[in-house]
Predict the structure.
Amino acid sequence: MKVIDSVKITQNACFDFRKKGLTVGFVPTMGALHEGHLSLIRQSIRDNDKTVVSIFVNPKQFGKNEDLSYYPRPINKDLYLCRKAGVDIVFSPCLKDMYAKDFRTKVSVEELGDSLCGEVRPGHFIGVATVVVKLFNIVGPDIAYFGQKDAQQAAVIKQLIKDLDFSVKLKVMPIVRENDGLALSSRNVYLNKQQRKDALILSQSLELAKGLVKNGTSSTKNIVGLIKKNINSVSSAKIDYVEIVQKDSLIPLKRVNNNAMLLLAVWIGKTRLIDNAILN
Amino acid sequence: MKVIDSVKITQNACFDFRKKGLTVGFVPTMGALHEGHLSLIRQSIRDNDKTVVSIFVNPKQFGKNEDLSYYPRPINKDLYLCRKAGVDIVFSPCLKDMYAKDFRTKVSVEELGDSLCGEVRPGHFIGVATVVVKLFNIVGPDIAYFGQKDAQQAAVIKQLIKDLDFSVKLKVMPIVRENDGLALSSRNVYLNKQQRKDALILSQSLELAKGLVKNGTSSTKNIVGLIKKNINSVSSAKIDYVEIVQKDSLIPLKRVNNNAMLLLAVWIGKTRLIDNAILN
């Protein structure tokens, strides 16, 4: 496994793969790898001749008062996990090589990036879209792997690939959960013992909503109302948003249909967690 | 020469070129080809195994009250010129294939795209940057050719290539002029006989400024003042802007240096013309 910190050297190495007719799978990450990331990496290794993983905590997708400075960066453990999984290249660039002093370009996906997480994290999806365009241009993958946990991110990237004519196939992989239901996230390490228990309210709420739909409730207003009540029963929980939207377009729905997706963002203490599920 | 209107087919054809190890040169145009465009096309044919020319009047780079509806579209003549020059593929997409109904993505190059032409044509360079990213992703060129006449556009594209890590080399080719000095432009066809004469005030002003610098004037304020006076002596001329800036960064200068560039935008009747020159 090669670990490369240079944009140019990674670009040339990936160019050589394609020149040889090898297919390239790409898993962009911010590191602090968990089983969710590893499920993407393993799928990429199954699908492609070569797999490239990027590890880059992208400052442009963090807001001013967010957790950029203390976001976990266990680089040695990450490299060990990548090596063990069979990754070919880990691209781990330094900040200056990604964003020169005179960096000026922004990629935005209107509407899709403005609601939900984009509303409480303004500029977040511009940061995501911009770095993903850069990474696609550096790696030139055949297939890129993203996690369903970041559902809005997946929708933004899907639109961006289509709009900008990237010849990249997108594979969005299912959410990986702890045995008790908590969706894996690099931010789960922030939770103390009590908060870790309280955090179950997210996945429990998804199950509750699925149950309501199964039993015939289709008014999204009613479902959201019950879910909010359920979350508010946990004292350490503070709701950021609870919304039922159309998958991909993220348009809010009045009635649950086959592609209705419940999206949650909830603060547990000082940790903001997200989760989602298709309801039908 | 192949004329292709489909994004996917063009993308596949260009992919096949690269797969065979052939180099691809790319000349993006809005058609109405003149000797300026042809100088880019000929350079591309000299430099590369294959040359792709796009002909697409991009609505996203026109303002509401601009000349989108009557911009010249002499497609048969354009195809004839491309064929005669030895172009391999003309990519001439229809609007729907470039911009689906749910198109949502914007690429912006901050600051560089906001001053000069960007100030009087808000959104213009977002339209340019967005379509160029699309075209680069469709064609995947080794070298892309742009004209120096659109100096600000060239600066925006240069920054975009660098910021977004496109592995595309940019070649900016010199302005081609009529014998009497008028810079070639597809918009010159709008000029009547008298306006055609009046339009010489642009290139004459550039020569005047060069002469002033040669004779020791270095205050850009003084030069701009004299140039404005000169242009205003022509009754059909209305100044849009006259500015002396640093090449590439487009930062306004107080004193002329080695990379000082004079940029002009002048209305001659209802036709907006631009021209520029390095002063030293």
Remarks:
- The mean pLDDT of chain B is 97.
